[in-house]
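Justification of resources, computational component.

The compute hours requested in this renewal are based largely on the per-chain cost of generating structure records like the one below. Each record pairs the submitted sequence with a full structure-token output. That output is archived, and it is also reused by downstream analysis tasks.
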Amino acid sequence: MSREYDFVVIGGGSAGYAAARTAAAAGLRTAVIDGAETLGGLCILRGCMPSKALIESANRNLVIRRAEAFGLKADAGAANVKAIRDRKRVLIDDFAGFRQGQLQDGRFDLIRGVAAFADAHRLTVRLREGGQEEVVFRSACIATGSKVSVPPIPGLVETGFWTSDDILDTESLPKSFIVLGGGAIALEMTHYLEALGKTVTLIQRSSRLLNFMDTECGEAVAAEFVDRGVSVHCGTKILSVQQSPAGKTITFEHEGEVKMVTADELLLATGRAANLDGLQLERAGVHVHHGKIQTSGTMQTTAAHIFAAGDVVDSMDVVHIAIQEGEIAARNASALIKSNAPSEEIDYRLTLFGVFCDPQVAGVGASEAELTAKGIPFATASYPFNDHGKSMIMGVKHGFVKMIAHRETGEILGASVVGPEATELIHEVVVAMSFRSTVKQFMAIPHYHPTLSEIWTYPAEELADG
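The structure output for this chain reads:
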């Protein structure tokens, strides 16, 4: 026997749940297939939410460490890692419980098992409780998320390493870490570990941290990390990893020299890969390019009735984009079933990105490199936090805001910020960009003084006057 559905979603994380609820609301007979041990998805269980719970403790410990500069006396003492972990568990149990309730509230069927394509309209599901069943679908959405990517470094697997999963659920931490990577996970975990008093060495293969953002973003974070005592090495070639009597040792080339660093533990944070294992995509005619599922703007794969959303596609791996992709996939699937051509296309113009290290990093829209590649004329202006009244009062040493505008029309095309509350401050520009505001229109918006937000008026004014 088999079950038949209008729309089947493989994966119950942020993208998958968004697709399922949207399809069910459109009247499609819908099912979600998820074989994970615990329902909830990466963001809730092992990503966004648990990491921010730990980072909140790190932030408060930094405030205590810096108390003397503000005329206060405080002693941070040793961090209680188990208590931090236990607080995180309570929060995540609550978040996950809510999502689990949403997945099981009856709007769509939930099938607990691991799916593989049998052909373009059939799935074989290996059920968690044992056995298997067949699912027949008219349309589907692949939203299986991502997994840790392990680079082919000699000795890495044999020596062993931690991932962010281990950091997020440990009740104790060794005294020193080597962190491999220069993206969001690497920077957030470096911040967390150092803030709790651990000795951290950060090693990045490319020439700068956050290499997908404008150059000055990574440079500002590196400067703050160095001030905090983190050893930062960019532009490296990792030669080997091995266990030594003193700990785990990495040998790497940096600035023409072969160097060695040893620490108690190694944290691998070099990125994640699409989780496509076992799906048998070739049986359904779904093509993969450079490890990601090929999709059009309508979120259709190379099999027109099969869609994909979230970390499995070639877009920024962030939750709000995954949700948007899932919703568009479901609406276009509904149109396809109702004999209409899918027409809604995703718009990545307002793609947001944030890193919750200290200093925080956030960006929206296009970078200079992207605009240059497209031949779009632009102008940029920036302003540092260490020359801005409110942030000077807060003791901020590093960071800036930067705005990018079309050179001819003045429309704001992008922005980035490195500094206090960056992930909050960026939303002012997002709102402006959503209405396609020009820098002159932005300048007409009143800003209260003294606030962090008013720093945006400085680059906007420079661009407006230019």
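The first helix runs from residue 14 to 25. The radius of gyration is 24 Å.
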